[in-house]
Structure formats: C-alpha cells, structure tokens
Design a protein that fits this description.
Helix content is 15%, strand content 35%. By secondary structure, the chain is an alpha+beta fold. A hairpin with a 4-residue loop joins β7 and β8.
Length: 158
C-alpha cells in the first residue's frame, strides 16, 4: 500500500498532537508552565531580619482589601517564595508560593477560597490548611505563621 505525501503529513500531524496531549496529561504542571496573575508585593514594602519577614501594609496595595493577594521572593540561599492572601477583613494567610507537584507559582481564587497552581495541572489547595483538594499535587503547601501588628504583617520564615 502506498501513501501519498498529503496523507502521510496528516497522519504525522495527528500523531504529534496526540503525543503532546498525552505528555501534558501525564506531567501536568511539571511540563506546561503557567503564569501567576498574583501581584508582586513591592520590594520597598518588606524586609527580612533573621527569619522574621515584616511587610508594611501601607505600601502593599495588593493586600489592602479582602480578596487581595500578593507574592514576593526573598533573595536568600533557600530561594523562598511566599504568597500572602487577605481573605477576610483584618485576616491574612501566608503560604509557600510553590505548587507541591511541579513548583509553579500559585493564584488566589477569593470567590472559591482556594489557591490554584498557575500551570496546566491546576492543582488546587484549601485556604484553611493548604491541603490538596484536587490535581496532581500530592502534598500540602507550607504555611508561614503570620500576625497583624499595627499596620504591618509579621511572618516567621522557617
């Protein structure tokens, strides 16, 4: 049986699409990079002293109102990334900003009260305790103790 060039190219195109789709499904957020839509907390609004991170809320617009969230990356040897959410008036939560499946950044979905991986796999985590709701992630998010002190947030980065 002979195959003409057009049929061969169609067959190879379909095979390529199927192979890529299968790999993306198997690898989830490890393979397909997503982009977090969470705003960056301005560098001049926070500082780290030892393992205590202090954020000046008057300079972090993304955290001023319930439903807001912000992310930051600390320049230290452990490459700590943090996502902070303002989930209720005067109440904040802080988590490691790494999906436990592929290490991608997270997005806060205020209306659903969840954190969601920014990549293809869309692992979702409970806001209450960082545990996995669904997706390829197997472990919970790390949670950082946080407290409101006057107009600042104080986090312990361990």
């Amino acid at each position: 049986m002979q195959t003409n060039r057009r049929d061969f190219l169609k067959t190879m195109g379909v095979a390529t699409v199927c192979a890529c789709t299968g790999l993306a499904t198997l690898n989830g957020c490890k393979m397909i990079r997503g982009v977090s839509s969470t705003a960056a907390i301005p560098v001049d609004s926070y500082h780290l002293t030892g393992n205590e991170l202090t954020i000046d809320l008057s300079k972090a617009d993304c955290l001023k109102h319930p439903g807001g969230a912000g992310k930051l990356s600390l320049d230290n040897e452990d490459e700590v990334k943090v996502i902070i959410v303002h989930h209720e008036p005067g109440k904040y939560k802080a988590f490691s900003d790494h999906c436990t499946h592929g290490g991608r950044e997270l997005n806060y979905k205020h209306e659903d009260k969840i954190l969601q991986c920014s990549s293809f796999g869309k692992s979702t985590f409970k806001l209450t305790n960082g545990h996995v709701i669904k997706g390829p992630a197997e472990g919970p998010l790390s949670i950082y103790p946080i407290q409101v002190v006057n107009t600042s947030l104080k986090l312990t980065i361990a």
